[in-house]
Amino acid sequence: MRVLLAGARGQLGRECESVLAFRHELVTVDLPECDITRRDQVVAVVRAVHPDAIVNCAAYTAVDRAETDRQAAHAVNAGGAQILAELAKECGAFFVHISTDYVFDGRKPVPQGYAEDDPAEPVNWYGRTKLAGEQAIREVGPRHAILRTAWLYGRHGRNFPKVVLARALRDPSKPLWVVADQHGSPTWARRLAMQINAVLQEQPEGVFHAAGVCRATWHDLATEFFRRMGLRTIVEPCATRDQPRPAARPTNSVLHNVRLSAAGLDLMRPWFEDLEEFARRHGDELRKEAASAAP
Ligand SMILES: NC(=O)c1ccc[n+]([C@@H]2O[C@H](COP(=O)([O-])OP(=O)(O)OC[C@H]3O[C@@H](n4cnc5c(N)ncnc54)[C@H](OP(=O)(O)O)[C@@H]3O)[C@@H](O)[C@H]2O)c1
Fold first, then answer.
1. Which of 42, 43, 205, 293 is deepest in the core (most CB within 10 A)?
2. What's the confidence (pLDDT) of residue 293?
3. Where are the beta strands (DSSP E) in 129-210?
4. Which residues in the chain belong to E strands, given as ranges?
5. How far apart are CA 207 and CA 81, in angstroms?
6. Which residues line ligand 1 (CB under 6 A)?
7. Which of 9, 17, 84, 152 for a ligand 1 pocket mutation test, highest count of atoms within 8 Å of Cβ?
8. Ligand 1 atom closest to Cα of 35?
9. Residue 291 — pLDDT band, cuts 50, 70, 90?
10. 294 pLDDT exceeds 70?
11. Is 126 a catalytic residue?
12. How far is the C-alpha of 10 from the C-alpha of 34, rounded, in Å?
């Protein structure tokens, strides 16, 4: 299959690049050569490539900045998604798009989680733009899979485990205060790339949750990551209100991969197993990178 991958230099895009290239003829694009908000650029790329499938990993992902940079976030997450969906339709390609747990308001009581059919009601602008993207894709027509994922981390780009690792290495004796009252589904970008690969093969249609299995707080994630990295940094729990951010976060955005499981396609694993593999594979590189980033 000839696959066009947009947002190929992002955290997930880079994992997709290496996973999908095994099986497919892959063409990768990102900014500046393919700005998904620029219909002319996307048209030129799609007409040159003639893809059988388009995978969209491109997004405006700065959740806090999106609160004040509203137009730009909307242009990418809603407008760009629509343009790609329309061009996929025009060339008869299957469209895989990535969305987010932040489409939910997070008010469900723990230990419940969200299934695909639960009503979406975002609490921040980023979530609203991602939901608008989903709606725009649905309006374009069938032949798409929208994969909602959550709390992504991986070898590339900026993510929570890397940020806390850099802080821990900067001052190993200093405890880290980490939010313990938000619940979610940490997801290894590599595993998600494998899931995308399976979705490309089978081409199921509609919205699917594709996130790490089992629930965690940010505090759990930091604690388990340090343990697997062999660090003794003390991780203290704190409340969301102790670390205010410009954008509100859903308190509970745990995702259940109900529809992937029903389709026999769920490749996602418990988050702590993937975290273990992540630390085992990349621990040394992560340490070096974090140490060189520290002042
Ligand atoms: N990260 C998470 O925790 C998380 C959680 C849930 C869902 N998701 C979703 O997962 C997907 C992948 O996220 P990620 O963490 O890989 O994000 P990322 O690392 O920020 O990658 C996004 C990529 O899109 C590119 N991009 C931004 N604007 C673009 C435009 N107008 N045209 C083309 N490319 C553009 C970015 O380029 P620049 O870097 O140059 O801007 C970057 O290469 C996104 O749909 C995101 O909403 C992420």
1. 42
2. 75
3. 144-149, 152-153, 176-179, 183-184, 187-188, 206-209
4. 2-6, 25-29, 53-56, 94-100, 144-149, 152-153, 176-179, 183-184, 187-188, 206-209, 216-217, 235-238
5. 14
6. 6-7, 9-13, 30-31, 34-37, 57-61, 76, 80, 98, 100-101, 130, 149-152, 157
7. 152
8. 32
9. confident
10. no
11. yes
12. 13
**Distance from residue 127's CA to the centre of ligand 1 (Å):** 13
Average pLDDT value for residue range 1-18: 98
**Strand, coil or helix: 279:** helix
Out of 102, 114, 126, 153, which one is annotated catalytic? Answer: 126
Q: Domain-by-domain residue ranges, the chain? A: 2-158+186-214+253-269
Q: Take residue 211 and report the two structure tokens written for it.
A: 């996130």
CA distance 220 to 272: 10
Residue-wise pLDDT tens digits, 177-186? 999 999 999 9
Give the position, in ligand 1's atom list, of the atom nearest the Cα of 8: 43
- Enter the CATH code of domain 2-158+186-214+253-269: 3.40.50.720
Ligand 1 atom 24, closest CA: 58
d(CA 279, CA 226): 9
